[in-house]
Sequence to fold (419 residues):
Amino acid sequence: MNIFEQCESKVRSYCRNFPAVLHRAKGSIIYSESGEEYIDFFAGAGALNYGHNHDYIKQKVMSYLDADGIAHGLDMYTSAKEKFLVKFNEIIILNTKQLDYRIQFCGPTGTNAVEAALKLARKIKKRPGIFSFMGAYHGMTLGSLSITGNTAIRSGAIGTSNSVTFMPYPYGFMESFDTIEFMESVLNDVNSGIEKPAAIIFETVQAEGGIIVAPIEWIQRLRKLCDKHEILLICDDIQVGCGRTGSFFSFERADIVPDMIVLSKSISGYGFPMSLLLIKPELDIWEPGEHTGTFRGNQLAFVGGTAALEYRESSNLEQDVKVKESFLKHFLIENIAPINENIKIRGIGMIWGIDVANLGDSSFAKELTSRCFELGLIIETVGRNDTVIKILPPLTIEMATLQKGCLIIKQAFEDCLSK
Fold:
């Protein structure tokens, strides 16, 4: 028994799928203590869009530490926060069409920002209800669990879904069903038994739900539905924001403006804990200290986040993502989909899914990712019963490494199917 099994809680998860003691990492490669190299198609569950130990971001962080910069600042004014706010406002808010937001720094992880959004929406509208979507994932604290669709991970939090109604997302048989019209009918029917909610929270791409990409028209109609019924629209861009789909915000392709936006994961640029809630100015009705948290002022995250935005601005990262998106799409369609007619490919930008739900039993996806790990690739499963292989490499991954990782996936398919 190793020290992890001896001392660490049974709740540990990822290490069970990737049973190596990881030692160091650079770019899109992770190295174990025993010397193995792994291509990273996991990227810290989306927290490492810029890869591991990005040189430009690392140098900015090290310089800040060398200068004895403030490391912990609650919500006080600091030079690190000032620089981040200036850069974020300049590059993201002012350069993105029609956006105007106040920035709330929340606790260290995405679920903290989700909690803040739910709390604020209910305060504004004075209504308790929230609409979420089947297949949604928003975090592991009680409020976030209440709007997460996976009943398995909600099972330990009894009674979390009070005042939450799950609506159908455009996926599976629901793709031929008008889910927006259904919500319209529910809201207009005095006998539906469902009260008008304070907010609707949604993901433009359900990542943990199985890489389900919402159609542009559906997103636009959702915005109009919220406007018509005076419901706040909250976009959870924790995993698919920060350039994952190409543009900085994933909703930009639909040309809409949410009332609130939740950001975390890669916003710090370096894997430092950080989460933001972007709020339309007229909705910022918080009283001072009404929603707080000891680690809402992560100064290293401000430094890393500022550097990441500078790098994004100077490197033409958005165009680079489009090039890699084109490669991934064509590789998966031409090399993976033909392996079996039951394989389904879905994705956008640099988040893609290989759905093997109809290929063997539910353990097949796990066999595939295990074989990938043996071949030197870290990649995880998501979706219903974990039957979707999720491709989520750093945005900065070298094309040759991206190609090598994809070839490992193909090899894993061949090996597993040959059994």
